[in-house]
Design goal:
The chain has helices at 2-11, 31-46, 67-77, 101-113, 124-136, 200-210, 226-236, 267-272, 277-285, 300-306, 321-333, 337-344, 361-371, 381-384, 397-400, 410-425, 431-445, 449-461, 469-476, 478-494, and strands at 18-21, 50-53, 117-119, 160-162, 169-173, 177-181, 190-192, 215-219, 242-246, 249-250, 317-318. By secondary structure, it is mainly α. Mean pLDDT is 94; it is low at 1-11. Bound molecules: glutamic acid.
Length: 495
């Protein structure tokens, strides 16, 4: 497949597609970051190209310890494998900006020699004063209005700035379409800071060039800077890669950008809570992309086949955690029981005090078979299954707050439950036999399932809801079911 694609792209006379994910190691990876990585990965995979990981660590103050490992682990966990990167190397190593300073220096000197970059002689206080002057005059601040006539020789201790060439731009963004700006947005931005490190604005352009990147996929926060990047590409004599700007991810309600409070959490936390990587990938792909059909569940291979930049939407994509829950549930329902068991075989997904007699694969698989239908993520399991592992004390509020059952007196309920017990006692507790007996009981008592089955369910589980009653009783077994019904009967007698 890969070979075919390679052959295909070469025969079309195109450069093989190379995309990159270029996070700064400043924290964990949330859905927005993963989405950028995912779109870049999909584009590379569907074209037999390469997907590159690069760390943009030139803002030393913002670096967070452990973030690099965390970022790599997040990509591995979601199956977004990269072909070249800081830990595995590659033909364009190193893939870490702080190790590429010599490259930036070389290109910077070239710009200086060509008269397209100069040392900034001002102190930051002076620049701040220019900014305030502009504010005062209600003018946008442009550094180039203060460009020095005779800048000092750049000795590496001053910031190095681009000598920009202000002009209008028109360009095509693979997602946002045709865009244009006037000369007023072009300015002399900093290429190399006074600490010797390049800015993102400079470094990413050099890296993308040296790493032969063909497509830049990044968030909307960079789009306003693109005209300045285009100005720099020209000064460097380079052709810009294809640019694709993905829309913001919006909070579930309202029209603001997603923040941590709205569920913009670490994707690894989702995985820890029992969200499936495939479901997360499916969900994240759908934040701003669809294939034009009604299909919502996509396998990874389908995403690779169907993804395209021109179907990425321009407007913000709403982050809806309910939809993620639904989608993960749909992925869980597709699992075979063996696989479901394997994925949930962790102490944190089972009730804490699971007694040894029920702590075995066979029994847990029976429980999983019943719960699979309603399970949205694995960490829900202990809350949904305690009664399969322990006799919960009789909870009288389950009856007193039940819409139907609260209309009956304890004596009436006791008669109903005694009648049920007598029939169940005769059962071999196979699901079929239980179902037949339950149906017979409906006829005998003249009650509706919402009444009779609720009563038996509450008695045998002490939970407000459970999977199908006959199946649940079958898994609980005769002894436990009758014991629990007896406890309920005793409680009804005591009222
Ligand atoms: N280092 C930038 C960030 O973390 C990457 C932007 C880009 O993809 O070019 O936001």
């Amino acid at each position: 497949m890969v070979l075919f694609h390679l052959f295909f792209s070469y025969t079309k006379g195109m450069k093989p597609i190379r995309t990159r994910f270029a996070p700064s190691p400043t924290g964990f990876l949330h859905v927005g970051g993963i989405r950028t990585a995912l779109f870049a990965w999909l584009l590379a995979r569907q074209n037999g190209g390469q997907f590159v990981l690069r760390f943009e660590d030139t803002d030393r103050k913002r670096e967070v310890e452990g973030a690099r490992d965390h970022l790599m682990l997040s990509l591995h966990t979601l199956g977004l494998d990269y072909d070249e990167g800081p830990d595995i190397g590659g033909p364009y190593a190193p893939y870490v900006q702080s190790e590429r300073l010599a490259s930036y220096q070389k290109w910077a000197e070239q710009l200086v020699a060509a008269g397209r970059a100069y040392a900034d002689p001002y102190s930051s206080e002076e620049v701040q004063a220019f900014r305030e002057q502009a504010q005062h005059a209600k003018q946008p601040f442009l550094y180039r209005n203060h460009r020095p006539d005779n800048p000092p020789v750049w000795d590496g201790t001053q910031p190095l700035r681009l000598r920009s060439d202000p002009k209008p731009y028109q360009w095509h963004d693979a997602v946002m379409g045709d865009l244009s700006t006037g000369p007023e947005v072009i300015d002399d931005f900093i290429l190399i800071k006074s600490d010797g490190y390049p800015t993102y604005n400079f470094a990413h352009i050099i890296d993308d060039q040296e790493m032969a990147i063909t497509h830049i996929i990044r968030g909307q926060e960079f789009i306003a800077s693109v005209p300045n990047y285009l100005n720099l590409y020209e000064a460097l004599g380079l052709a810009a890669p294809v640019m694709a700007t993905v829309p913001h991810i919006l909070a579930p309600a309202g029209n603001k950008k997603l923040s941590k409070r709205d569920g913009s959490k670490d994707v690894l936390d989702y995985v820890r809570e029992g969200f499936m990587p495939d479901a997360l990938v499916n969900f994240i792909a759908s934040l701003g992309w669809n294939d034009g059909s009604e299909q919502e569940i996509f396998s990874r291979d389908e995403l690779i086949q169907k993804f395209s930049l021109d179907r990425v939407q321009r407007s913000g994509a709403r982050f809806d955690e309910q939809r993620l829950l639904w989608m993960n549930g749909a992925w869980i329902r597709q699992l075979g029981l063996d696989e479901l068991y394997r994925l949930t075989d962790k102490p944190e997904f089972w009730p804490l005090d699971t007694p040894t007699e029920y702590d075995n694969r066979g029994y847990k698989t029976q429980v999983l078979a019943l719960i699979q239908e309603r399970l949205k993520y694995f960490a829900e399991l202990p809350g949904l299954t305690p009664y399969f592992f322990t006799d919960l004390p009789v909870d009288e509020t389950l009856i007193s707050t039940h819409k139907q059952l609260k209309k009956f007196s304890p004596a009436e309920l006791k008669i109903m439950l005694e009648q049920s017990r007598a029939s169940l006692e005769q059962s071999d507790f196979s699901p079929t036999n239980l179902q037949n007996r339950l149906n017979d009981l409906l006829e005998q008592t003249g009650q509706k399932p919402a009444i009779l089955f609720s009563l038996i369910r509450i008695a045998s589980t002490q939970a407000p809801a459970s999977p199908g009653l006959a199946d649940t009783l079958a898994v609980l077994g005769k002894e436990r079911s009758l014991r629990r019904i007896d406890a309920q009967l005793a409680a009804l007698a005591a009222v």
